[in-house]
UniProtKB/TrEMBL annotation:
It comes from Sunxiuqinia elliptica. Coiled coil: none annotated. It holds the Pfam family GCV_H. The lineage of its organism: Bacteria, Pseudomonadati, Bacteroidota, Bacteroidia, Marinilabiliales. InterPro entries: GCV_H, GCV_H/Fam206, Single_hybrid_motif. It comes from the Bacteria. This is Glycine cleavage system H protein.
Length: 236
């Protein structure tokens, strides 16, 4: 056939090029597998286990108090209250003890409930004044709802407010709440450096990663003395 030339690549350097291409095609998946296995599960999840201001859930429309409790006024005129996302990130898994019953009155800043973690506890104070309407009994059986969905299913009490406008005047809302939470995160890091050194025989326990980022649930393994310091400096 005129104009047609047959070249046997096995008789030329073409086979070398194919070998090189084949090598790289095999190398790419092998390298991906190697780098994936070289990371421990803990390292692979590190970014999701760090507490940063950007990771905190701070919905608009919710009022945050300095006690790290929140409140939201519903259309029916009743307000729900609960624990903010930052506090739950710091403590980790906690159980709740309801200290108020329906029909009882509560004042803003008054003891409302208690959260517990392996013999350690924190007192939570009410963000508003009012009359207790209902306690979220679901939290007794499913306390994890506070961490998984703190502003919907994880509410603690429903209260009929008696001084809503005055009570929420000093609370943080929307962008102000985000800025306040970021400042609290920084303040907590400073708090740890002091409290841990005071109460731990070996203050080298890791609660901060390289770069100063907080590991998820830093208070979970810390002693009751640190929890007491936290109570006095952050929740009262």
């Amino acid at each position: 056939m005129d104009g047609f030339t047959y070249t046997n690549i096995f008789a030329t350097k073409g086979i070398e090029y194919l070998a090189i291409i084949g090598f790289f095609l095999l190398l790419i998946p092998f390298w991906s597998l190697l780098t994936r296995k070289s990371k421990s599960p803990e390292q692979g999840q590190l970014s999701s286990r760090l507490i940063t201001s950007k990771a905190l859930r701070i919905p608009h429309g919710i009022f945050f108090s300095k006690f790290h409790s929140w409140t939201f006024l519903e259309r029916n005129g009743l307000a729900k209250v609960g624990l903010d996302d930052l506090l739950l990130h710091l403590t980790g898994e906690v159980n709740i003890t309801h200290l108020k019953q329906p029909g009882q009155k509560v004042k803003k800043g008054e003891l409302l409930t208690q959260i517990n973690h392996h013999g350690k506890s924190l007192h939570i104070f009410s963000p508003i004044s009012g009359v207790i309407q209902q306690a979220n009994e679901l939290l007794t059986e499913e306390p994890e709802l506070m961490r998984e969905d703190p502003y919907r299913q994880g509410w603690i009490y429903q209260i009929k407010p008696t001084a809503w406008k005055a009570d929420t005047n000093t609370h943080f809302l929307a962008e102000d709440a985000s800025k306040w939470a970021a400042q609290e995160l920084i303040r907590f890091k400073d708090f740890l450096s002091i409290s841990v050194n005071q109460h731990l025989p070996d203050p080298s326990q890791v609660v901060l990663q390289d770069g100063g980022e907080l590991v998820e649930h830093p208070m979970a393994e810390l002693p009751p003395e640190v929890w007491q310091d936290f109570q006095e400096q952050f929740l009262t």
